[in-house]
Amino acid sequence: MNLKKLLGCALASFIGIHAVSALDIDVREVGAVPDGKTLNTEAIQKAIDMCSAKGGGTVIITGGEYVIGSIFLKDNVTLNITKEAALVGSTSRDNYIHQGEYTGLINALKADNIGITGEGMIFGNGQAFFETDNAPNRPMILYLQECTRVKVKDVFMKNSAFWGFKMSRCDGVIVDGIRIYNHCNWNNDGIDIESKNVVIANCILTTDDDALCFKSDVQDFIVENVTVTNCILSSNCNYIKFGTASSGGFRNITISNCTLRPNETTLPLKWGNTPRDWRKLVPGVTKEVTGISGIALEVVDGGLMDQISISNITMDGIQTPIFIRLGHRNKDDRKGVLKNVIISNIVATSESLITNNITGLEDSPVENVMLSNMIFNMKAGGTIKDANMPVPEVPDAYPENRMFNFQMLSGYGMYIRHAKGITLDNIVFNLQPGEEYRPAVYAEDVHGLRLLDMQAEPSLGNQPAIRLNDCTNALISGFSANKEIPVLLEVKGNKTDNIKLINNDLSLVKKAVDSSDKSLADKVTVK
Fold first, then answer.
1. Which of 22, 33, 80, 231 sits in a 20 to 30 Å window from 359, CA-based?
2. Do 513 and 501 contact (CB within 8 A), yes or no?
3. 381-412 core/surface letters (b: 16 or more CB in 10 A; e: else)
């Protein structure tokens, strides 16, 4: 073999394309009928099996609507759904084959070099499976397990009965330019990622549940080496979420250049006999349609989160822009680790009184989180009682912004508890119209806190801009205000020590430090 041909073969192997001798099969040639009625599972599976057995190629879906149950991609086969064609999920559960806990309309198990391409549609018919939250035996649209060299490009997935697209313990997945619209059932996620070496780009996800969700169900598998970029995400739940499943963990993941926007609609779902109406459930919500959290980083099952970078994000229609939680919902499991997170260049408008928050456990703090270059337009409405109300620990509660007994948190801009090595750099906290008595930032049991170049609108009632409770080794520098601030910093708690206010603009600050305990005030250095 000459060098040119050898290099060509190596490139084909690297990017996962088929050999020149690949076979193309139009599914109509093997008996598939695109009439929207005939069950075509057997015919299309026959085309896939034939194509794979002869070395691989493309199975072409064209010319109408093909009703199917579960089909399985095989090695070296690409399923190409042309623009005028659609695969339509059967409405009978009898036509779906389970792979362990889950099933899908399109499946693959331990397949190599597979793809789904084309501008056609995969329609899940999910409304036919509508029951209750967490109802079992509902098919996803696309379910891939332990596959290698996967490419999913340009297809439109609509109305899954369950999650839209889950990749489970796969290695080497490229997802480019797909659209997902899931608004017909409970648990209508967009893309669920439990794989490694993954690239997701240029996608539009519109979902009733989590839009982009990283999951880690297996203790010995780390979700790692993932890049997500240039996507538009909308959700009635979480826009970007890590967890809730977090047994193994997440490492070395980058998300950038995404727009998060509210959905145009939401399903009239109920929890028990209670309608899922955020206006009745979450303090401060007044809009009919909102998402829960813009960026939710959750480790609650003993796993690891390490080296996460998220940047260049705009958010609208969101209750809580940033939600970071290290919890422990199963007392028999080991405790998790959440560390080394950078989130930067964020513009967000909040739609609830449950603020941004970073919360760990008293004996398992969140570590080394840096938030920088952010503008938050926060909802006003907290009272003095709200500012001083104890927030429950609830270490084993399901992680979501309303987990603290549906109450608002003690700061209108940021609430931090049980953490170390936390940096807020160049953060602007604006207030939407209304009366607000909570401080902009509340921190409790936080060690190594740095608040740099912060701007915050003042609270009412002579409340401080920053309240620290049992914090040590904190630096506040570069604070500035465009309105009069009654108190810059209030310190509380017998453990508070080594607090420094250095190089702050105090021209509009009436009082730099306030404390009911003079001995605590003496632990604050002002320069």
1. 231
2. yes
3. bbeeebbebebeeebebebbbbbbeebbbbbb
